[in-house]
Inverse folding.
């Protein structure tokens, strides 16, 4: 197929957009279809979409430029994104697979090859951390990459082989569940929890969830029962339920497993919530990296409609009407933040809102909205089915129930581990076969970096609160490289709304690069601490408030990894003065000794 | 006794000064009404508060109850200052009894650093900028005792839009405060500006088919044209008319009441 085919006439474009909008007029959906079909979103397409959806062109343009998976310049017909996560990234097995692939395909990172066949770039964690180095090719994950596989991929692309003729097993993503607990040991029987809830009544259901002590599993830990209650009490023309399946924290993949193998429990939890708060519409906001799970989720929704568990008069209860739509994101970590997610659902850039007001009173379209993590809804469904007392048999006083941990990195058995809250870090390390451990990153880059002295600490809201990412770093890892990686991640993912985070994360990234290159001094360490503390305290949302954690934790707990890279002296400039003169030398055609610094 | 309780229920305390407020007011509103200046760049009374520049960051002392901190996302183990929390004065509702720190050396140091961030991420060359002397960013920098950019410059490449017959858009100086975005929507009844992109690539865009100002419905009289606190949006027909020494911040202090009107109509001093 020639690139010309992807250049549409305005009639083709209009017809395509009209057809796409007839399926779903959600802006992210329409933009995805355009990107998929035409490999980019042209200015003409922006205008067409805006006029078709009756939106300002600037809103469409700003969305196109905000989300990583949309582009204004054409990508290749094979569009490859390698994860740059420390667990499923292209250097995860010690080799630079990105460079290898680019060399093999004669393509530069981030630049589409002249023949339009292929483009290769990197992207933030794609949630395949239990499967080694991974990539997305036209949105489909391929895992377990090594040099051999990269060579084969290059070959298949070079020969223009369609995906049907790629090894099918490459696209199979297995669930590596290593330890089952309260939630994973039994699957929910579709409808059981709902029947129980209908018998309890609305107040009884709210009471049951509150009594269970269930707290939000995204990491913040707000009481789920209270959240539902506040929302139920809030006045509005409609109430909404949103499931946050924008699992973007590097090292987290537990929602992927829940979405793949426990979708019924997720939807049951959402429907229970809808019943309790009086919602008729819910959304599951699925991260763009998990788009491949969408057909499966749609199938489960369709079955539940047939079973009378969604739609009108659910389980025969007149007036209990509820349905769920799936909206797929497009590559933006910030959309895991609840108010940014809501903005994104509304077809805007994912910029966190000012709070108060909170989503429970002013959420989607300004109406009362419950927004919970995937795992929270799964737990709620189990509580609805089995009762709060059952739930409280596990965990600690402050953190009842269990927690799914996504264990990855330098260990023998990466995968999903479900533990009662209160489990120690040491226990997890022993179970996952981690030997010679240097450090553990709990809760992803936004969380906490701990060393040996912290292994007796426990997972729970009273100590180490986490969304579930558990990354193990062995002795052989360069911990400074890890922190460089994390600082790049935050600078890339900052939405750009507030000054401290927008500018500060880039300052930290630059400072870390300087240290890593051996050009930093104690001055730079002091500066990082000062700026890091400021970003942490003064930023608008959780992203900025946690972005400096890896650096601050590192400086506090692993000072030697910084110090051993420092240059001598009090100060080193952040740029190379001699290199800066290169342009002047070229213009003046000089390269003599006097044109160089000593 | 009752009267005293009544008073306490309707005041906040900023740097030791009791300040009355009405229901619905933000900390910034209450401070503004009482003539207390809290530095800010993205705020303008009458427009929806934004809370993005973070210059108006203040600290509120926590109540004895620890409930307000317990659920903050992953913050419990790493609070820099556990007995107070940081908020934006422009977006935070005033609530009875708030004990607020604002004009302290530590907070002004934070504000100075944030101002430096704004300078180095753009291309701000004050000596050649027409807005010099009328520029709120520059005035805030002077107010906070900022003597240099401190950080290495980002030197971004940003587009200039000179297509409009009377208005010029120089994105080099844009600080993403979105005052023009809001003024256009909320006061002018148009929708000329928006922000696109992400992180340091965020930039001001024009809502027109070509993305150029000339194709928009922007007019010289629009508030969006005049509200820019820096020299990103300038009127072409006039330039460098007011001599140095007679410009806004040569004659006025940032915290003066009614300054918005003065800054908006910058040429009123011409014949003085």
């Amino acid at each position: 197929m020639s690139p010309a085919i992807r250049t549409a006439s305005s009639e083709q474009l209009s017809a395509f957009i009209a057809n796409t909008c007839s399926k779903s007029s959600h802006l992210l959906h329409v933009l995805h279809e355009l990107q998929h079909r035409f490999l980019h979103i042209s200015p003409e397409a922006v205008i067409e979409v805006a006029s078709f959806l009756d939106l300002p062109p600037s809103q469409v343009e700003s969305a196109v430029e905000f989300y990583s998976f949309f582009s204004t310049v054409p990508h290749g017909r094979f569009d490859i994104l390698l994860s740059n996560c420390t667990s499923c990234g292209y250097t995860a097995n010690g080799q630079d697979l990105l460079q290898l692939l680019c060399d093999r395909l004669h393509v530069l990172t981030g630049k589409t090859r002249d023949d339009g066949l292929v483009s290769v770039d990197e992207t933030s964690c794609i949630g395949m951390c239990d499967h080694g180095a991974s990539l997305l090719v036209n949105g489909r994950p391929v895992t377990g990459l090594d040099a051999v596989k990269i060579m084969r991929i290059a070959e298949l692309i070079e020969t223009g082989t369609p995906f049907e003729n790629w090894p099918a097993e490459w696209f199979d993503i297995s669930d590596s569940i290593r330890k089952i607990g309260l939630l994973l040991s039994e699957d929910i029987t579709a409808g059981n929890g709902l029947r129980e809830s209908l018998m309890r009544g609305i107040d009884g259901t709210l009471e049951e969830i509150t009594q269970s002590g269930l707290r939000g599993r995204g990491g913040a830990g707000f009481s789920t029962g209270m959240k539902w209650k506040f929302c139920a009490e809030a006045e509005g023309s409609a109430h909404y339920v949103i499931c946050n399946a924008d699992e973007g924290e590097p090292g987290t993949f537990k929602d992927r497993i829940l979405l793949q193998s426990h979708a019924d429990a997720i939807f049951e939890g959402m429907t229970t919530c809808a019943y309790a708060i009086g919602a008729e519409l819910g959304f599951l906001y699925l991260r763009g990296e998990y788009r491949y799970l969408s057909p499966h989720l749609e199938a489960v929704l369709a079955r539940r409609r047939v079973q009378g568990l969604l739609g009108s008069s659910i389980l025969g209860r007149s007036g209990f009407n509820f349905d769920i739509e799936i909206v797929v994101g497009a590559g933006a970590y910030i959309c895991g933040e609840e108010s940014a997610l809501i903005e994104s659902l509304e077809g805007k850039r994912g910029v966190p809102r000012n709070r108060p007001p909170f989503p429970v009173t002013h959420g989607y379209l300004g109406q009362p909205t419950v927004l919970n993590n995937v795992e929270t809804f799964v737990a709620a469904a189990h509580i609805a089915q089995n009762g709060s007392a059952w739930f409280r048999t596990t965990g600690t006083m402050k953190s009842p129930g269990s927690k799914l941990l996504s264990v990855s990195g330098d260990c023998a058995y990466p995968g999903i581990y479900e533990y009662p809250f209160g489990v120690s870090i040491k226990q997890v390390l022993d179970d996952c076969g981690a030997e010679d451990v240097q450090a553990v990153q709990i809760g992803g880059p936004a969380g906490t970096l701990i060393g040996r002295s912290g292994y007796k600490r426990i997972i729970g809201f009273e100590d180490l609160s986490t969304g579930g990412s558990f990354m193990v770093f062995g002795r052989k890892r360069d911990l400074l490289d890890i922190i460089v990686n994390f600082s790049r991640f935050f600078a890339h993912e900052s939405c750009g709304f507030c000054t401290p985070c927008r500018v500060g994360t880039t300052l930290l990234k630059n400072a870390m690069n300087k240290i890593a290159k051996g050009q930093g001094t104690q001055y730079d360490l002091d500066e990082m601490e000062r700026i890091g503390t400021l970003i942490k305290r003064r930023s608008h949302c959780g992203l900025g408030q946690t972005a400096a954690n890896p650096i601050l934790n590192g400086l506090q707990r692993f000072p030697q990894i910084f110090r051993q890279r420092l240059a001598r002296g009090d100060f080193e400039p952040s740029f190379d003065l001699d290199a800066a003169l290169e342009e002047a030398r070229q213009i003046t055609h000089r390269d003599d000794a006097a044109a160089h610094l000593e | 006794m009752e009267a005293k309780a009544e008073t306490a229920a309707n005041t906040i305390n900023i740097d030791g000064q009791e300040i009355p407020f009405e229901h619905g007011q933000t900390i910034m509103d209450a401070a503004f009404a009482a003539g207390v200046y809290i530095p800010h760049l993205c705020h303008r009374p009458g427009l929806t508060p934004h809370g993005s520049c973070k210059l108006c960051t203040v600290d509120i002392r926590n109540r004895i109850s620890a409930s307000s901190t317990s659920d903050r996302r992953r913050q419990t183990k790493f609070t820099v200052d556990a007995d107070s929390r940081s908020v934006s004065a422009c977006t935070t509702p005033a609530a009875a009894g708030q004990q607020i720190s604002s004009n302290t050396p530590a907070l002004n140091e934070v504000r100075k650093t944030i101002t430096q961030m704004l300078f180095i991420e753009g291309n701000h060359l004050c000596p050649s900028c027409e807005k010099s002397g009328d520029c709120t960013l520059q005035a805030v920098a002077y107010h906070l005792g900022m003597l240099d950019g401190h950080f290495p410059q980002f030197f971004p490449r940003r587009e200039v839009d000179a297509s409009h017959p009377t208005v010029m858009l120089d994105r080099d100086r844009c600080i993403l405060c979105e005052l023009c975005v809001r003024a256009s929507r909320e006061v002018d009844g148009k929708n000329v500006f928006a922000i696109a992109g992400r992180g340091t690539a965020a930039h001001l865009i024009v809502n027109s088919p070509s993305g150029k100002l000339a194709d928009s419905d922007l007019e010289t009289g629009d508030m969006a044209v005049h509200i820019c606190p820096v020299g990103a949006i300038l009127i072409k027909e006039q330039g460098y008319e007011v001599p140095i020494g007679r410009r806004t911040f040569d004659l006025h202090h940032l915290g003066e009441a009614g300054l918005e009107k003065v800054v908006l109509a910058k040429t009123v001093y011409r014949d003085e």
